Amino acid sequence: MQPAQIAPRDRLIVALDLPSVAAAEAMIDRLGDSVSFYKIGYQLGYAGGLPLARELAGRGKKVFLDLKLHDIGNTVARGVESVAALGATFLTVHAYPQTMKAAVEARAGASLKILAVTVLTSYDDNDLQAAGYGLKVSDLVEARARQAQAIGVDGIVSSPEEAAAIRKIVGHEMNLVTPGIRPAGSATGDQKRIMTPARAIAAGADYLVVGRPVVEADDPKAAAEAIHAEVAQALG
Ligand code: C5P
User: Fold this and answer.
1) At the N or C end, where does the chain have fewer CB atoms within 10 A?
2) What are the C-alpha distances in Å from 221 to residues 32, 71, 77?
3) Which residues are annotated binding-site positions for substrate?
4) What is the mean pLDDT of each run of 10 residues along the chain (236 residues)?
5) Which atom number of ligand 1 is nearest to the Cα of residue 181?
6) Which fold has domain 3-235?
């Protein structure tokens, strides 16, 4: 599906950053029909979240497995096949050419889409230098976005601040998925480069990943509905 055709309510991805399947199931029950798309990352994934992903997909929910794969091509490919068999919709890989190529080839024929993580947002120019790179973060993000597009990756995860620049590079065929979203008035937590849902959509984001502002809200369902309203308004 081309990004422009995504219904406003399907653009919110709630991060199930919770310690157990029981806690995740309780949250999913509370959110009910308000949320159609869930992200499962390291914390829940390694605590029983993979069978939960399969179950959610079977119940008609979409699942984003944020596992950030990176290994030799053959290992990535076999992992991607297993994730595709779970019924997941999105899977993240680090944006190394071998890794992206292996993932894209292995998801052929499945409904799974591969998202590339260009440069982790916790990295600054000094961190890149310490890791042996001679590039600035912005240059490496741009180079990897171009490589991802050339390889046929389906989308990119970026901070909302990078979204407009990445959109210019990759055009409108690729999905842009942005965490670091904070509705007006909610606590920022450890997020530094944040945007409201409306501003992130205006910057070109297709999907918004939101964790604590929903799962730690007194009324998670109301928090999700407020984000839907803001997104619908931003889309006009
Ligand atoms: O609770 P919060 O809304 O900050 O959660 C955001 C989610 O997006 C978390 O699961 C976090 O790991 C993820 N994420 C992020 N920033 C990135 C990449 C992923 O916050 N750059």
Assistant:
1) C
2) 8, 38, 37
3) 17, 39, 66-75, 121, 182, 191, 211-212
4) 77 98 98 98 97 97 98 98 97 98 97 96 92 94 96 95 92 94 85 88 96 97 97 93
5) 3
6) TIM Barrel (3.20.20)
